[in-house]
């Protein structure tokens, strides 16, 4: 390549549900991070890699983070800590807010910490879900946000529909520092396949289960076996925290578990491009939210104490 290469980390931060994972997937051009309509879907930092710039000279390593919110439980604290540390390590931070929600209390709380937590990183603003509002509202929101914080640039986007995301990508490609690429050019994610597989199952569970249940379960891939016929056998465990939850996850006559299994398997087969035999066991583990091993499986730091 004649043009000198550039590369850098771009952290996507914002309140839960802002559309961070949707944007990451769009930038990468593949689904590497799970998305649901519910808050607090992403639990750990997920990296997705994209090539951008006029002659494809920039490698952008997007870091999807859990949403920033007021943590209550140990898991919440670990998620929020992971999100801020993602911001602290990045070359560029993109704060995502929702156009129709505007400057919420949650956004104000993030703005208060932004300077101190983003270090030397450049901070851009991405107003997402512009498909939900009128243009006039966007202009007012843009100027009010920029009065509150000196953003390097503001973008109005729809991560879902792809509006404005090209301009954001082009800008990011210009902003990242010169230097060698950080990953091989064909790599799009750096999570191990077993984690991606567990996340896919967790997404399907989150979509089908109600109230608190999605927040009180975790999925782990226990075993992965390559079969001689080219298919893969994947064994997973869903840990739930209460006796009653096992029955809910199973559903009447096992229907919920079956539907989850089918949906997860189909997505895995598409992702891997081959047949998958998926076996999902549900186990009650009352204390999983307090177990260090569960956190390391999720890629989170297990934090002691209440801070
Ligand atoms: N209308 C509209 N919906 C969007 C847009 N971008 C994302 N969404 C939806 O917003 C919801 C949340 O998207 P996610 O990408 O999971 O949000 P997130 O910020 O990663 O959420 P957490 O992982 O919980 O922090 C999903 O239902 C998306 O389909 C958009 O541009 N317009
Ligand atoms: Mg997410």
Task: Explain what you see.
The structure is a single chain. This protein has a 6-stranded mixed β-sheet, sandwiched between helices. Strands 7-8-9 form a 3-stranded mixed β-sheet. Helix 6 (193-208) packs antiparallel against helix 8. With 307 residues, the protein is of the alpha/beta class. The chain is built from 9 helices and 9 strands. Helix content is 36%, strand content 22%. It has helices at 20-28, 74-88, 105-118, 135-148, 165-175, 193-208, 243-250, 255-272, 292-298; strands spanning 6-14, 46-52, 58-64, 92-98, 122-128, 153-156, 217-226, 232-240, 276-284. Magnesium ion binds at residues 20-21, 33, 41-42, 64.
How far apart, in Å, are the first and last alpha carbons?
A: 49 Å
Radius of gyration from the CA trace?
A: 20 Å
User: In total, how many beta strands?
Assistant: 9
Strand order of the largest sheet: 2-3-1-4-5-6
- CATH homology superfamily of the largest domain: P-loop containing nucleotide triphosphate hydrolases
Overall tally of structural domains: 2
**Shape assignment:** globular
Largest sheet: 6 strands, mixed
CATH topology of the largest domain: Rossmann fold
Count helical runs: 9
How do the SSEs run, as a string of H and E?
EHEEHEHEHEHHEEHHEH
List keywords for this structure.
binds magnesium ion; six-stranded mixed beta sheet; alpha/beta; single chain; binds guanosine-5'-triphosphate; 307 residues; three-stranded mixed beta sheet; Rossmann fold; ribosome biogenesis; G_ERA_dom; GMP Synthetase, Chain A, domain 3
């Amino acid at each position: 390549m004649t043009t000198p290469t550039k590369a850098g980390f771009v952290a996507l931060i914002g309140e839960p549900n802002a559309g961070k994972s949707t944007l990451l997937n769009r930038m990468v051009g593949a689904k590497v991070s799970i998305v649901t309509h519910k808050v607090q879907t992403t639990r750990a930092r997920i990296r997705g890699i994209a090539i951008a710039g006029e002659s494809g000279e920039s490698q952008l390593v997007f870091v999807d983070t859990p949403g920033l919110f007021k943590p209550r439980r140990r898991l919440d604290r670990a998620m929020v800590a992971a999100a801020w540390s993602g911001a602290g390590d990045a070359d560029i931070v993109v704060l995502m807010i929702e156009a129709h929600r505007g400057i919420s209390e949650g956004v104000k709380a993030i703005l208060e910490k932004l300077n101190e937590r983003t270090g030397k990183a450049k901070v851009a603003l991405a107003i997402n879900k512009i498909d939900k509002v009128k243009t006039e509202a966007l202009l007012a929101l843009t100027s009010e946000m920029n009065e509150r914080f000196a953003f390097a640039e503001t973008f109005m986007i729809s991560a879902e529909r792809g509006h404005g995301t090209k301009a954001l990508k082009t800008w990011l490609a210009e902003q990242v520092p010169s230097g060698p690429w950080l990953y091989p050019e064909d790599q799009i994610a750096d999570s191990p396949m077993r984690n991606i597989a567990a996340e896919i199952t967790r997404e399907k569970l989150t979509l089908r289960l109600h109230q608190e249940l999605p927040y009180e379960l975790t999925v782990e891939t226990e075993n992965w076996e390559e079969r001689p016929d080219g298919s893969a056998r994947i064994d997973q465990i869903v840990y739930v925290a209460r006796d009653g939850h096992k029955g809910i996850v199973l559903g009447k006559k096992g229907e919920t578990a079956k539907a989850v299994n089918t949906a997860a398997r189909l997505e895995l087969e598409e992702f891997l491009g081959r047949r998958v035999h998926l076996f999902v066991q549900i186990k009650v583990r009352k204390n999983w939210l307090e177990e260090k091993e569960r956190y390391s499986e999720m890629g989170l730091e297990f934090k002691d104490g209440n801070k």
